[in-house]
Specification:
single chain, alpha+beta, Peptidoglycan synthesis regulatory factor (PBP3), Domain 2, Beta-lactamase, 3 domains, 6-stranded antiparallel sheet, 5-stranded antiparallel sheet, 12 helices, 19 strands
């Protein structure tokens, strides 16, 4: 006869077996074996489910706890740099002046700087006339760089010029009859001490007569675009020798481009056998970079100066300056205008302080609610010209770690061709997010 047992009995027997209760019958033992096998399978399935769940949860947690953090949000302040005052080229209190500056095209543009003040009328230019005389002579008898040229022999008529110009109160240099001199030295005597008798003698030698020279001078002026300049004698003693500041700047460029004229105009002094020691009438040579060119003086408000300068403004290559001053009452006033003009141009190139280390740029805020100031890492300045505007850009990025000094971006200043940069860093400590924030914000992790 077969006895039937329900599951409750089987579980009870299993419990008794597990508890070590007494013996059971063979049928009961068989039933209990089957029950143990079923429960074993159930327990094994439960363990596998729990283990797999633990492994899945552990993989997410590991990723969430180590994933890259999102970038912070930067709230930036206006870091605009106040514009500098525009450069004001110095102006004369009397007379007129003009200046042109070339070089540094990235600052001054391809055409350079041009400034002028005072009258644009043609005025007496005095001994600046001798620059024209020299250029017209060299047009007929050119000299190469370092070339002494032909030899001039002075006769009785040339020697007589010494007395003729002496009684007119002009600057003169010895010219003994029968003496000789190279063309280069004769032009040097005309330009450096501004000897009028040499200007007359050399121009006559070059063209055969004064009328021929003056005709050549007029043609040369027209050919070179000096249409507002008039020459009536080779020395400048006649107030009919006139020009405008615009024409004088053009004349200065022509003179500076001639190697003979440029070298002689920059010579402070020289001594020749026929003349003895002579000094340049341009007292500004070597001052503030001035390299030439010629002075003039007829008195009574007719002091003139045509000058060139090599102006160092801290940009590597110096600027090339040509300036003209006319109509001043004194030599001192004339020189003052030139020096103030150069100073004003030099001051136009200046360093602009952009930021000091520690200056606050803004606030860095993280998605998990922490914040700190963002500051400039180091002092910054750049060189610029006049009132060139300074543009500012700030770029931010996520740091590798959120702590004091961590780089969160860069700030860049640009003015013309110049650029300055500095890191933007965290000022103070930004706590990293908690593990709970990481585990609960998977959509914000990298």
């Amino acid at each position: 006869m077969t006895t039937h047992r329900d599951s409750t009995d089987a579980l009870s027997d299993f419990a008794d077996l597990m508890a070590g209760s007494g013996t059971v019958s063979a049928d009961t033992a068989a039933d209990r074996g089957r029950t143990r096998r079923v429960l074993g399978r159930i327990l094994l399935a439960m363990v596998l489910v729990i283990a797999l769940g633990a492994l899945s949860a552990g993989g997410y947690a590991a990723w969430a706890l180590s994933a890259p953090l999102p970038a912070p949000t930067a709230q930036l302040q206006d870091r605009a740099v106040a514009a500098s005052e525009p450069v004001a080229v110095a102006e004369p209190s009397q007379g007129a002046s003009a200046v042109t500056v070339s070089g540094a095209p990235e600052y001054l543009g391809a055409d350079g700087l041009h400034a002028a003040s005072g009258t644009t009328d043609a005025v007496p230019i005095a001994s600046i006339t001798k620059l024209i005389t020299a250029l017209v002579v060299l047009d007929a008898h050119p000299l190469g760089e370092g070339d002494a040229g032909p030899t001039l022999t002075f006769g009785a008529a040339d020697h007589a010029l010494y007395d003729a110009y002496y009684v007119r109160g002009a600057t003169i240099a010895a010219m003994p009859a029968g003496s000789t001199m190279t063309l280069r030295d004769a032009i040097a005597t005309m330009l450096i001490p501004s000897a009028s008798n040499y200007a007359h003698a050399v121009s006559t030698w070059a063209y055969g007569s004064q009328s021929a020279f003056l005709g050549a001078a007029r043609a040369w002026l027209e050919a070179n675009g000096l249409t507002s300049t008039r020459i009536v004698d080779p020395t400048g003693l006649d107030p009919g020798n006139v020009s405008t500041t615009a024409d004088l700047l053009r004349l200065g460029a022509l003179a500076a481009a001639d190697p003979t004229i440029a070298e002689l105009a920059a010579t402070p002094s020289l001594a020749l056998p026929a003349t003895g020691p002579m000094r340049n009438t341009n007292e500004l040579l070597g001052v503030d970079g001035i390299t030439g060119l010629k002075t003039g003086n007829l008195g009574n408000g007719t002091f003139t100066l045509l000058y060139t300068a090599s102006l160092d403004v801290g940009l590597g290559e110096p600027l090339a300056v040509t300036g003209a001053v006319v109509g001043s009452q004194t030599r001192e006033a004339t020189n003052d205008v030139a020096l103030r003009t150069l100073a004003s141009i030099r001051a136009g190139f200046h360093d602009v302080a952009l930021a000091d280390a520690g200056d606050v740029v803004g606030t860095i805020t993280t998605p998990w609610g922490e914040s700190a100031q963002a500051v400039v890492a180091r002092d910054a300045a750049l060189r610029t010209w006049s009132d060139t505007p300074v543009e500012v850009t700030v770029d931010t990025r996520a740091p590798e770690v959120y702590r004091d000094g961590a780089v969160v971006g860069t700030i860049t200043w640009t003015a013309g061709p110049e650029t300055a940069t500095s890191d933007v860093v965290v000022a103070g400590h930004i706590p990293e997010p908690t593990a709970w924030w990481r585990l609960t914000h998977p959509d914000q992790l990298g």
